[in-house]
Specification:
Shape: globular
Number of strands: 9
Helix content: 25-40%
Distance between the termini: 20 Å
Number of domains: 2
Structural class: alpha+beta
Low-confidence stretches: none
CATH superfamily of the largest domain: CofE-like
Largest sheet: 6 strands, mixed
Strand content: 15-25%
Length: 224
């Protein structure tokens, strides 16, 4: 991970903050106050992993509660496989998406997505499926135990969460969905001094360490 990235003539230092292995149901605000607050300076903003928000809110499902159906098994056969990321190659994870979006919508997404691929257009499946299914994370055998056995669902009202965190922490907060394939900004509080597109570019190499690194929080600081 590069400690400093340059964008539009400005330099941004990224400072990952290490924590303990955060457990399900832990309070998010006290964690930020314990590990992050002492390191903050004027003008800093904080990037928070969407995954850790879901863990803290207990917005998760255990593998034992999911039974992959025929549709999930069918869809994963056509899902793109990535060498360093499980993505949606596991039927149980796709089953969670099917249940979240509903069978009719997922079927439509599958058909339209397949047609789109014939014309070289990718991503239609996720757009049509909607319901933030692209943010579902988990059932990853390479993750730390017990995260290997859980799927993390998208946090409810992410905009409200980051705004409340900004008010309690005294610094802007950005919620990030990052992996080895892509990085997306889920929400950012009103105090962030630039557009979400800029936040995404600053974090595009996914500097948040959400597994063995134990760095689910990151301070971003503009430097001379």
């Amino acid at each position: 991970m590069k400690k400093i990235v340059e964008l539009n003539g400005k330099k941004y230092k990224r400072l990952p903050i290490q924590t303990h292995k955060i457990g399900f149901g832990e309070e998010l605000t006290p964690l930020l106050e314990k590990y992050v607050k002492a390191h903050l300076k004027k003008g800093d903003w904080v990037a928070v992993s969407e995954k850790v928000v879901s863990v803290c809110h207990n917005h998760v499902r255990h593998l034992s509660t999911v039974k992959a159906g025929w549709l999930a098994k069918l869809i994963v056969k056509g899902v793109k496989k990535y060498p360093k990321d499980i993505g949606y190659s596991r039927p149980e994870k796709m089953q969670v998406a099917v249940e979240r979006a509903g069978y009719p919508r997922i079927l439509t997404a599958m058909v339209l997505g397949s047609i789109g691929k014939l014309f070289g257009i990718h991503g239609i499946f996720w757009i049509v499926a909607g319901n933030r299914v692209s943010e579902i994370d988990g059932f990853n055998p390479d993750a730390m135990y017990p995260y290997t056995e859980y799927v993390m669902l998208p946090p409810e009202e992410p905009e409200k969460i980051v705004q409340e965190l900004e008010e309690k922490l005294g610094h802007p907060v950005v919620m990030v969905d990052g992996n080895n394939v892509n990085v997306e900004i889920i929400a950012q509080s009103r105090g962030v001094p630039h557009h979400e597109k800029i936040s995404r570019l600053i974090l595009l190499d996914n500097p948040l360490g959400q597994d063995q690194e134990l760095t689910p929080f990151l301070i971003v600081r503009e430097t001379p």
